[in-house]
Structures are given as C-alpha cells and as structure tokens.
Amino acid sequence: MCGRYNIIDDADVRHLMDVLGVDLYPQTRLNVAPGSLGSIVYDAGMGRTLDSALWSLLIEPHPGTTGFRPSPRYSTFNARADRLGSSPLWKERFANQRAIVPASGFHEWTGPVGHKQCYNIRGSEGAIAFAGLYEIWEFDGQRVASFTIITLPAHPRFAHIHPQSVPLMLRPEDFDTWLDPQLTHTDPFQHLLQPQIRVTLEVAPVRSPNDLKPLTAATTIAADRSAVPG
Question: What is the pLDDT of residue 95?
Fold first, then answer.
C-alpha cells in the first residue's frame, strides 16, 4: 500500500458507521497521509468508539513545535500480516488492540518517476473497512491515539497497481470478531492474513487525491471467493 487514503462523510461512510454500531461520523479528509489524522473504530472494553488518530503506530512529540509526528526511526503506518504473530511491535497489539479504519477509498501511483499516474481505488458496494491496530499514548498528560493499517502479501490481480502488498479489507461479517476486546487469541483471524481481495474494487485514474473525478472509466478487480495460497 502506497500510503494514502481518503474518507468522505457521505451515505456510504455513514452506512458503514451504522453497521459498526457507532453513532458518530468521520470528518472528510481527501488525502490522509502517514503522520496525519484519520479516524478509527475500536473497543477497549467500554463499547465501540470513533476516535481521531495519527496514522503511524509509533509516534513522538514533534521537536521544537507543538503536535506529534511518526517515529523517525521506524516506519509503522503499515503492519505486514506475516509479522503480526512474531514481531514484538505487533504481537500484543494484534491480540488486544485491533481497530477498523473507515475509508472511502485509497490511492496508489503507477508509472515512471516524473510521470506517475494517481489511481483512486474504491469498494464497489460502499465504504471500505481497513483492518488496523491502535495505541493510546500519553505525553505530558496529553492523550494521543495512533494506528497502523495491516497489509497482506502481493496479490496477482492487484500487482499492476501495487506489486508488493494489498491492504486487508474486512467484510461486515468480520466486524464483531475483529473488534471483540475479549478475544485475545488470534487463531480466528489466520484466514484473513492470506493474500486476498475481500471486496470488489473499482480502480479509476484521477488527477490527484484532491480531485477524484475519474479521467477514464473505472476498471474492476473482483473480490476473491477464497484466499490465494501464500
């Protein structure tokens, strides 16, 4: 995943939030980048919460100014699925701090340097629910949430867009289990971590993340009926 997505407060996103059982709606953001604010849904044991959070799990106070930034030592805006069960960074959070990241779509760029084409990728049936992990930090008494989006190994039908990975997108039947704070063993999630496209996607070239009018008709990447063997 290249590292950009968008969230638009429209009927599709509101429907997703209704399905998630959250009576708040995310703020529209057309070009969410690592280190900027996104929205996450999680349950820390007191019911589901919609929270603003920084996109990059490891963050720190920004030196010399206010606010926070991603750790300059580690890239943590994505978490590779094949490391969730072994990496000290991800293992406990995978068991205890799972989140859903609502999105309208995400952006990828293809082509040579200087002539890259931006693509906007949307779910054909509505908003996207990325699988993520979250953390709640406290810096000098200030509470700050952060998150990462889980990525799967490369998928053959997505390789022309991104040859290395595809984000893990959840379906409604996954939501309750994924967000269950009482479920701390991860065996029920292993089938989700194989290369797969779990929702049908529409891929359209656009001028930029801030101008989402398609330049040509969208093409479709159909959802898998089952996971692609890793």
Answer: 98
